[in-house]
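SAMPLE LOG
Freezer: B-3
Tube label: C17
Construct: single chain, 1202 aa
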Amino acid sequence: MAPHSPVTLVGDTLGQRHRHLNSLVRAARESGTTVQDVEAVPEQAPADRLFKVDLAVSLGDADYILRNLKHDDMLFVSRALKARWLLDRHDVINPQYLEDTLFPEMVSPAVSKMRHWLYINLREPAKCQEFYEYYKQNSFEFAIKFLSRCSNRFILEEVPKILAKLSPHYLKVLCEKCSTVAKIYFDSLATQDDVKKCYLDQEQAYYNSIKCVLKSDADVFLDITEKYFSFDKFKRFSPLATDYIVRCHKSRVTNKLELYVAHILHIPTLAARLSVDECQEVVLQLARASYLQHWFQYKAVEPLIKRLHPQKRAAFKKRVFVDKDVGELVQEWPYETPSSPAAELDSDSHVFDDAELECVSVLDCEPRCGFAGGRLLKRSYRNVEFAECLMRCGDEYDDCMVVKVKTDLDRLFDEFRFIGFDHALQDLSHRVGQTGSTDRRRDIFLVLVSKSGGRTEAVTALLELAVRHSNEPAHTRASVIRSLVKRAAVWRLPADVWQLLLDFSHGLGLDGATPEAPCREGLHAVVIRQLLAGQCDPIIRDAFLKDFSTLAEYSLKPNERKRVADNLQNMLASAAVGVEPKVAADLLNKLLDVLKVYRIRVEASSLAVKTVTALAVQDKELARPLLERLYNARIARRELLRLNMMFRRDEQALLNALRHDPLALDVTQVVDILTDRRRDFDIFTAKLAVYFVQKQDFTPKLRNALKEKISKPLDKKSAHVKLARPLASILSQEFITELKKLDQAGKEYVMLQAQLRACAHRARPIVNLAEWGWSRAGVKAVATHVMRCREIERAEFIRTLAAERRTVRVALALSLRSKEGPVLDTFTSFAKLRPAAALRAGLQYFHRRGDTAELGVWDIIKPLLSTVDLKRHKQLRQVLANTDWIPNPIKPAYITELYSAVHTISRSHADRLLQDLCKILPECDESIENVLLHTFDSTNEKQNLSGSNSNSDSDDSNIADTDILYPALYIRYLMLAKSNEDLEKRYSKIGIRFIKQLEILRSKKDKKFKTSLDQVLASLRYNAAFFDTKYLSCLLVIQKILDWLQTFLPKEKYFQIYVQIHLTMLYFKAVRQSMKQLPEVFADPKRKRTEGVEAVGFVFGRYIAKEVSELVTTYFDSIIELYTAALVGYLESFQYGVSRDKFIGHALKGFLVDGVGLQRRLAVYTYRRFRYDVTKDMLKEIEELLSKDKAIEMFVHAEICD
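STRUCTURE (predicted):
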């Protein structure tokens, strides 16, 4: 080849053209041609540039390679990355140069591809360490890819610093390189709470990731297993892992035998690896473990027992399971058992967390599950209260339990489970003649079949007995034969015994005749026996083919399996010759089943392939599924390529044709495939555009066919839109010309024009959109272009796009992708040009960025909440209601502003916002008062809404004409008063109006009053105010509510309500007293939720003791029983979890310390209710205190002791 001539690829297939291009590069290098010699040659096709890049790779020309890495076309970027020698150039391959110089000049897909290329190819530990240290601060997900290739010393130094960031995948990768990482990780679970939290979230995945350590450092792996293996969550080891452990680390198994056998190892593999005596000893040791009785059953240890000789097996089973003669029992585990790390109290609901209470309008339901309309029904499904309501209000609530009832066969089998075959045969042979029930006789034979164990002598004795009962009904004999075939492999029986089986099974179709009762397995046994003999009778064959089976479900030996498979093939192939096409297709389908099940290697010249090919000539439709099965099985793909094109309409089929036989491609067929496609065919069209561009090739023909296709539009405007992408890929130099033609065409081409512009990035050579102008290019093409632009171009693109209404959204997306993009400026422009879209984009921005979001965005979109007409934008309202997306610093302001905007539009959204506001009430400023006043002033607005006949824009078509009622919000707002003067101010504005609302409901006997009152009582315990000493009026708020209740609730009748309010007062005093006594504990958030629970609980118990004493003095002694009921209900109202159990336990201890005489029986009653909730240590401690108290000894024995 002359060094300056364009490249012309020669060859029929894709592979041949690849090789021809490589030969051109090789010849140029050998002839002394340099990159500079060919660089200036005009490039008429992509192959010209590929030739230059490959030559540069071959000659090591780094400058030309770097220029191509900066190219817009990813084809040339990918080709340039074949220069792996670039890794040796430290002046290029170092993170500082890449990030500061090279990457900013590369398009973003090229940067991503080169990052991946670095991860795959960079192996030198020193360089990997350099990349890791550079990226670990700002791009940890990329940096961690290099850590496993650093030195072990560096890995061990770095891993302890990043344990909380390690995913299961990267933990596995690091453990494969350095097994000590597994020990470091699991040792940290005892000391690092953040690591423990991540581990518990994906416990099984993290444990599985260290299984690779088993063979590199088994002691480390087994130590971890013996400490952290979770019985409930983890699966048993695989057979391979079990085999390795038993072979190489048997001592670890024997030291903790019960643990490994009962929970960890694969028992069949363990049994196979142990000797008979060892298996026997293992079973005996497990039988002695009383703590395993829930697991130790015959089925669990059956693989171990089956290792014993059949003659000894029955006696051993009787000894272990009947006589229980196993030696002295062991009551407790002799060693510590593994378990998951204990979850922190913070990971559970906590007694110091406030309950999330909802609006009364949401919680309320009418009798018989009215639920105040369908709107609230959907809302309530998210609430636990709704589930409780269903159970209360439903017609019936049945607690059903499915219990398996043992059949007569089950009971008979249990009777003979541990008796050997000989004794069972002797006993049951007498019973079979005495029983008059056909089903009972069938059960007897089935038990004997099971006890035979498939041994020939036992089966012979069984059949001799069975033959004497050959007059049994057909269905009875069929059941016995079916069981016998599955369990005893009867096709191996001697001829005389086989004849006994045939005699017993007369009339069941084993001779090919029509059976009196279904006995498919019996016929299969006959077929297997004849196939093994090499000849199958025609009558038997015909009956078998009518109800075909591959026979793979039977336990065949390897030599039997091979012989059966071969003869089945011959049987089916011969039967498919000379029959109707439909019958032949069915037989060939069965033949393919055999090939698949038996995993038979099939050559292209085999009889099966030839038969399918012959059928395809006769009937293509019948052969289509057979050809598809051959293709999926990877059989004769190349030989059947053209036939496969009948049904293969995916990209892989077209690529196969390019690789092996491009002449198999039919232009019309390919056009139809591209028209009907559901996925992009980018790889196929790219191969055409690069390697098949000569006039005689397929690409020009396809190009002309596509142009002709789109020139004949259909009635629909969207006609042929799917053809735009493949057409753009292969138009080459004609792209601009073709687009101009479409621009001059009629309106029916509008969508095709737009789609072709959107696919401009697929054109080769790359289209310069800047020359077109943004308006002519179209938004989709502009978006595609700028989202893959170079970093150095982004600032200019953002400024240009932000000025246009159509492209401002693209500008925002681009600025968010930039490291220091002008986010605030872009949002400002966005808010001016498209306010509603800016609101949605702002919420999505906060959701994606989280705590790292620019809070100045809130200042930009805040005015939009009042200017945008949210009544017209229902979906936007739903997006805005996702307050979980909002960063905490601006969440109070956001919710109050949004509530002001939507409370007159959407009742459901307003309720939801109030609930979100209630959660963060202490963080709100004085503007919260306006929101509360809005809730009182909403009555008239709601009456107006409900008075209108139709309102399609409102979310709430069934809005009630009552006020929004949210007692928890008002009570908690009052609790947050910082002085008595502040409280009086709040009470005069909010409290009095709230009480008036409740009074109106009470006077009307409204059903909401009961629900509202319950929420008032529940919201009085407000931990957020109790644990902050700047809120001084909590008790005064409770007292005001108490005074109001006394005006209409007599204390004698509603004693429990008053007790619960007094308990809340005592709880408040206990909190403040504990904070005063232990300030250092409550100053530390972690100690507050652990030690603080114990302290508050203990003081709370002491306060209860004093109040009980006063009540007994004031009233009578039996008031304790009344007080106990209220106390139990109050304690149950705390958030359920570990912390509640600890709180209750210490409250009981505190009560017992200050309780007086018989008054301490309250502790006995309360302990009886919560005894199963507290920890074992606390249980033991409380029971010891109770047992030592002689005054309540009788109550302890009556209420607690058995």
